Amino acid sequence: MTLRNETLTYEADGLSMASQFYWDDGLAGRRPGILVFPEAFGLGEHAMSRAQRLAELGYATLACDLHGQGQALDDLEQARAAIAPLRPDPHRTRARARAALQALTARAEVNPTRIAAIGYCFGGTMALELARSGAPIAAAVGFHSGLATVAPQDARNITGKVLVCIGADDPGIPPEQRAAFEQEMREGGVDWRLHLYGGVVHSFTNPAADRLGRPDFARYDAGADARSWSEMLAVFNEVFPG
Amino acid sequence: MTLRNETLTYEADGLSMASQFYWDDGLAGRRPGILVFPEAFGLGEHAMSRAQRLAELGYATLACDLHGQGQALDDLEQARAAIAPLRPDPHRTRARARAALQALTARAEVNPTRIAAIGYCFGGTMALELARSGAPIAAAVGFHSGLATVAPQDARNITGKVLVCIGADDPGIPPEQRAAFEQEMREGGVDWRLHLYGGVVHSFTNPAADRLGRPDFARYDAGADARSWSEMLAVFNEVFPG
Fold this sequence. Notes:
CATH class of chain A: Alpha Beta
Largest sheet of chain A: 8 strands, mixed
CATH superfamily of chain A: Alpha/Beta hydrolase fold, catalytic domain
Oligomer: homodimer
Strand order of the largest sheet of chain A: 1-2-4-3-5-6-7-8
Radius of gyration of chain A: 16 Å
Number of domains of chain A: 1
Distance between the termini of chain A: 20 Å
Strand content of chain A: 25-35%
CATH architecture of chain A: 3-Layer(aba) Sandwich
Largest interface: A-B, 25 and 25 residues
CATH topology of chain A: Rossmann fold
């Protein structure tokens, strides 16, 4: 394995994005490509490490910039403020996701017909919004991802499989939001799944979540992290056989 | 591999049970044991084939009789009538399950400290009721299993992990029943998970479901069958490491 990394820059939604591309240069041929959208804090260690792990498994991956200039925010309130304008306007979220998709599929290492998107927290919402936009992605996987959308009717545009992995006690994704998502997916005729983990809250995939000091809201959970990762890989094995 | 099979007989809840025990005689030492509880129709091809597959993977398994004398019922209404008296009285269900547990753990091939229970439809309910009884099982896995119980307060007795795999469109397990189960598990402090499969109804693991001719109620789903099986094996790998 010869793991390589390069910064890809592109414009999206009026921002200059700087995303991190990872691939195993020891592999021949075009690999399935995976977009990795970060938490609301923006591109940092968490999303980059997951993109790298996927590249080690043979995927070509893009850990995607969210806020422009590859910015990572430290503060939760700052992160929330940064994404607040995006929530009522999924076209802006989708524009950022689609530009990342274009940057990834433009690479010679990537098979543009074999693309999936994953994301964490708001990044999971981005993966879902990319799917709702009708982008030709084979799968969207969200981890502790917000499920709400102002455009539920767009679920009918979703062509790939959807998996969302949610903490049953996540205060940010309450049962009513899950029920609305279920209804949205059903009405859209989507091939979808929701995995609900008992005793688990927000940010369960991110060891850095514990630094927030709000364990009832956000807390790392090694078991749920490992399970959801395996369940994501199972989806990839379904949509990228052979 | 030298797969072997033997009928185990025992009394339970006033019935003479005849269950099917499977193990690989080519393996040395005591193996983790798995109870396999069948659908409401009773012990038939479906539960026996699953128990056999698990035995091929190195577990010692018991495909459990439900109605006594190893009876398999053909008719859905007959099956419903047979389990109707059990629903308001979980002690009878638990008595049948506990006797199966005793029969399994009495075998020299089985490690009595490493037991899990799985079940399909009413058999999933049996696995859950066995867990609610406080039986020392490391995991209970239910496939299209009824989640309702008249004794939700007994969830606090559950010592092992719980996974239930449910079709999102199963008419027999509506959203309110899932919500009540979620509440029960939370209040009981259980290590639990619920996997919800979109576009999937009842009996999704059983190819014979299609013979009922009621596809809106019961329908085989190869994808959900394969996924839920893998997700069950992942639970076994968690609770029976090494």
